[in-house]
Specification:
The chain is α/β, with parallel strands linked by helices and 166 residues long. The chain has 5 helices and 5 strands, in the order βαβαβαβαβα.
């Protein structure tokens, strides 16, 4: 059967949040997709869209290193649409409540903090069994490892009975 893949979406740019995740996954033999590449082109968009649609576990942190308005919009639309399409996939979302002090554009900061609070509250109200809201990257990493173990056990059952929501 297909290996269980963890998609590392969310904050990009100069963020290094993915490094400890990839290090741990390599140690454990866990397959992952990293959309952050040095030379991005249109083929990267196609790969990202495919992984967002198909990876069994999607991680989506919006860190405090960026205003994150694009990422917050993506959580609001892409992630929720993907959850509705296949409720047998797992989604782990972390939205930092604050911003680093270097982000000091008053208007952008105010809008970012407002959007972060709204998105978090809306996600909490969804109460979906495959949606995990975490408060830190450390918690996200631990949840992703446990989910990978769980999904790896469940995946062969899905292949045997594709019409059941196992």
């Amino acid at each position: 059967y297909q290996m269980v893949t963890i998609g590392l979406f969310g904050t990009c740019g100069n963020s290094a949040w993915r490094t400890p995740f990839m290090d741990r996954y390599k140690q454990m033999g866990i397959d992952y997709f990293n959309p952050q590449v040095e030379n991005w082109d249109l083929s990267c968009a196609e790969a990202e869209a495919q992984h967002l649609a198909e990876d069994q576990i999607i991680l989506f942190p919006v860190t405090n290193e960026t205003y994150g308005l694009g990422s917050l919009s993506e959580v609001g639309f892409s992630i929720l649409q993907a959850i509705k399409l296949d409720d047998r996939r797992e989604f782990v979302i972390m939205i930092a409540s604050d911003l680093v002090s270097e982000l000091n554009d008053t208007v952008a900061k105010k809008e970012s903090l407002r959007s972060r609070a709204l998105v978090k509250q809306h996600l909490k109200k969804l109460r979906l069994p495959n949606l995990y809201l975490v408060d830190s990257l450390e918690e996200m990493l631990e949840v992703s490892v446990v989910l990978h173990q769980t999904v790896s056990i469940r995946e062969p059952l899905r292949k045997l009975n594709p019409h059941n929501k196992i």
